[in-house]
Amino acid sequence: MHETCQTWVPAPALRRTSSWSAIRRTWRIGARPREFDLKFSRVVNEHMIGQMVHREFAAIYLSMVGVAFLTVCVAWEVGLAVVLPVVALRLASLVNNHRLCYKILEAISRQEDYSADLRFLTIGIGIAAGIWSLFIIVLGSVDHLSLGVVLACIALIVIYMLQVLLTSYYPPSMRAVLIGSSCAVTAPLLLAWGSNGPWLLVAFAILLTVMAVVASLLERQARWLVILQLRNKQVAERLTRANQTATEALSQAIWLASRDSLTGLLNRGTIARNFGKQPATPADVQRYVALIDLDHFKAINDRSGHLAGDQVLVRVSQILLAWEKLGTGRQVGRWGGEEFIATFECRSRVQAGLHGERLRRLIGQVSVSLDDGHDVEVTASIGLAQVSPLEGLEGALIRADEALYKAKETGRNRCQLAA
Would you name the residues annotated as active-site residues? Predict the structure, then answer.
């Protein structure tokens, strides 16, 4: 027999990393998120496309404000007639993009193919970026630097940054923004070189560089965000299902702990606890307890088997449950073996006796047909006792048991009221 020699190896020390270093690693250029199993799945892509389309709706409504502002600034310098064609083109692109966004969202909700509409929307976003750049071309022809030119340039910078931000959930749309704006501005500025042309071209080149860097960062962070959102949603759904399962299991355990497994009636411990929690009754209302014992039940088990005895117990429990629902302040349960317990409220001993007699007659009507073709008739002996505040339920049960014993001694199938 050989002994195995185990060598202890110390665990590697944990590296402490600051939150700032984690942020730098996450946001550095060229950084890629971890390879989640959902990263390139259809769920992630559809979620990102849906987010982009919703943001494009917001961009369309914001663009109307931008068009009005740029129209005022540029028309002040070059005249309204020069700006109107650009404004008309931009409004036409807004209407087209709005229509495509609506069609894509409808297709996503119906789980239909929307790839063609998505391609057209991407092209439309690029054309829209090019139309924004036409305002820069118009400003390039201005021979002086004025407040209107400065405000228009600032507005265009804000518009371009918002476009990149709003399309960050879908990289092709971001690339369309960069390509459309570059093609629409660079060549015309080189051909029509006004006094504002050089600095506009340099400023636009710097803007494009910054936009490309920001676009790369935003695309990665947008995918990270979508993946984490879906992960959190999955975890939340799993936790919800686990909580529901645990709640159902707890409810089932509580039910099993408080019920008799065969008949489904309350067990003796639950009967006692519920009785103690009942509110106080008026002075003219009295509480009674009844112990019910099935007559000659052992003979049924010996003659027809324990399965037949279980059928009898289940049938009697159904009768007792039906009686319980007929009045308030009643509860029934299985006391043990062939004995049942019932508690109720009434105003006199005469009424208590009538309740006992009604229970005895209801049980006497039970007839269980067995598999062997025989019918089993059931009778019961009942002992009744009033529950006084001094002795409580335990004392009343002792007297009810004595009354039950007396009912059996005097012939069975009787209801005996304790003194």
Answer: 338
